Amino acid sequence: MQTLSVDLGDRSYPIHIGADLLSRADLLVPHLAQKRAVIVTNTTVAPLYLDRLTATLQSAGVDVFPVVLPDGEAYKNWETLNLIFDALLTQRAERKTTLVALGGGVIGDMTGFAAASYQRGVPFIQIPTTLLSQVDSSVGGKTGINHPLGKNMIGAFYQPKVVLADTDTLKTLPPRELSAGLAEVIKYGLIWDAEFLAWLEANMDKLRALDPAAIAHAIYRSCEIKAQVVAQDEREGGIRAILNLGHTFGHAIETGMGYGNWLHGEAVGAGIVMAVATSQRMGWLTEADVARTRKLIRAAGLPDVAPDLGVDTWLDYMGHDKKVEGGKMRFVLLKKLGEAVITADVPTDVLTGVLSAPC
């Protein structure tokens, strides 16, 4: 097991990464405010891991109640969120009752938002079971739900007490979901660490084959980079926005195509290529840089060509992006591979050129 910390003063918390962590009550119980927990999961993850986690907690004397939600991005909405509140109220959950998110990014985001909102804030724990959630969404405290006009537009910053990334859960992950998670891993290399980017190029086959050492390193380095960024800017007032490379384009794809038709990581993968192409049109990257990025996205099993939504539709959905400031869209682009920049100064002809012929 490897452990690192997200340093946020009195809201700091550990991230544990390793195999067979679902059986480690000693990693969970110290973070419970009382020996009562509500496990929020979904219909896909519950048959795989709910009984095991429940047994682990019950062995330590914890009273456990499960909430099983429908699976999929299409259910990341108010109606499903209310199912969590219904269960909490029915079970008379208190302010010291801990919510445990067992699942991927959708479950983590909704459980965190429920925890931030119920009785104005109750503790929660992240146990991510997908690669995407282990390397990205479970760390940093972003929680929320989708709206028909925009992804993740309603939510709160709310930090977990601990993140438990059990790499064994990736063994049951469909290949498409594994590839989706690799989009976020690639993002970290592109925005922060050119050496890690080169390592990903050399080890992509091992990652897709779930080589234990390669997967553990990718998760650790991804979480390490995100923890460093979040410690500097918890609420995304500045540098944290670089973690959204490809997301402005990617969220528009998800919204425009209908939530769930493209996985988040697939949309981000195509969005990364668009961001890199925009950076090249700005004169910051070379055509070789774009080709290198596209090759890595493809090697991860991700789409490197976005759907053609039409320029007006692209702009409409991108106008709902959370990085919009003063009515101007801001973009995360690359000055070079391994160095990100946030800018609102993208000329109209550059942007429309990318949007009119998605690359």
Summarize the structure.
This protein has 359 residues and is α/β, with parallel strands linked by helices. The protein has helices at residues 46-59, 78-90, 105-117, 131-137, 175-192, 194-208, 212-232, 247-257, 264-281, 287-299, 311-318, 348-356, and strands spanning 2-6, 13-18, 36-42, 63-69, 98-103, 124-128, 142-147, 150-157, 163-166, 331-336, 339-343.
Note the total helix count.
Answer: 12
Shape type: globular
Question: Which stretches are poorly predicted, pLDDT < 50 over at least 5 residues?
Answer: none
The total domain count is 2
Q: Supply Rg.
A: 20 Å
Q: N- to C-terminal separation?
A: 40 Å
Describe this structure in words.
- The protein is an alpha/beta fold.
- The chain is 45% helix and 18% strand.
- The protein has two domains: 171 residues, 3-Layer(aba) Sandwich (Rossmann fold); 182 residues, Dehydroquinate synthase-like - alpha domain (Dehydroquinate synthase-like, alpha domain, Up-down Bundle).
- A four-stranded parallel sheet has the order 4-3-5-6, sandwiched between helices.
- Helix 5 packs antiparallel against helix 6 and helix 9 packs across helix 12.
- The radius of gyration is 20 Å and the shape is globular.
- The mean pLDDT is 96.
Structural topology:
Layout: E1 2-6, E2 13-18, E3 36-42, H1 46-59, E4 63-69, H2 78-90, E5 98-103, H3 105-117, E6 124-128, H4 131-137, E7 142-147, E8 150-157, E9 163-166, H5 175-192, H6 194-208, H7 212-232, H8 247-257, H9 264-281, H10 287-299, H11 311-318, E10 331-336, E11 339-343, H12 348-356
